[in-house]
Predict the structure.
Amino acid sequence: MTAEEMTMRVFVAGGTGVVGRPVVEALAGQGHHVVASTQRPDNLRIAEKLGATAVLMDGLDDASVRQAVLDAEPDVVVNLMTALSVPSNDYGKWLTITNRLRSEGTKVLMSAAHDAGAHRVVAQSASFMTRPGSGPTDETAPPYLDAPGPIGSHIQANIAAEEMVLDTPGVDGVVLRYGFLYGDHTAIGPGGDIAKAVEAGTMPIVGTGAGYYPFVHVDDAAWATVRAVSAGAPGVYNILDDEPAPQAEWLPYLAGILGGPAPDRISEQEAAERFGIQSVYYGSQLPAASNAKVKAELGLVFAYPSWRAGFGSVFGGREAS
């Protein structure tokens, strides 16, 4: 019997989020007993319809986390907790709760997973964390811990969480560094904030637009997570498609698909003043990243290996005009 064929008890923290829902549905469909947590009572029925046992849990309440995990008695814990579903014009404030979930929430979740006897934890992180000018990067590239403003604080929180996942005794830790998610219910999906801004022509190219966005379709991110529950050695994996996307290429391409105007170009200084320093980092400075490790070690085959075809699929099969 292979690892994939064994029935396991899997606790999915954040099981009703954008990635959590397809992960829970797939794991339940494979016959695993899935317990999915949510902080919102109105999401309990969603988790149940996906095939899971639903439980209320506040990821920043130690007692709540410990009770939920210990009661679930999981073999594997999947940590998909974020607070990114509500948009904000202030990038730093938008990340505040997610940063706490990464640092504080991960700490108690890992302790509870250990005490509950879980042998494996799969945790979400981010692939867009490397220093400008570092060239094409893989999972060994040093993170940009001294980045300015909210970029640095977010990267520090992610790395702190990763270290807890990887270093908990007796637990095989797997860190999945997702790229920028696109697809249904994301910012780059029908009705999403970025899609609406691109369609309206209010999202500009920053400087030369040489920042390489690591994109991944939400379905591919979910499938990678399901695979990692039972496959792959402990460690860090980039979860992103085959084609790093310079902002100067993907932004006009998406505008063409959506029928929006060609995006304006603004200087890095103007971008920092109008949108925040993160717009400069992502739009003009972010190095390209590689997905070679996850394809080799988890045997992952992406349904959407290129954002070009993926964008077209998400937005009704349209092509850039």
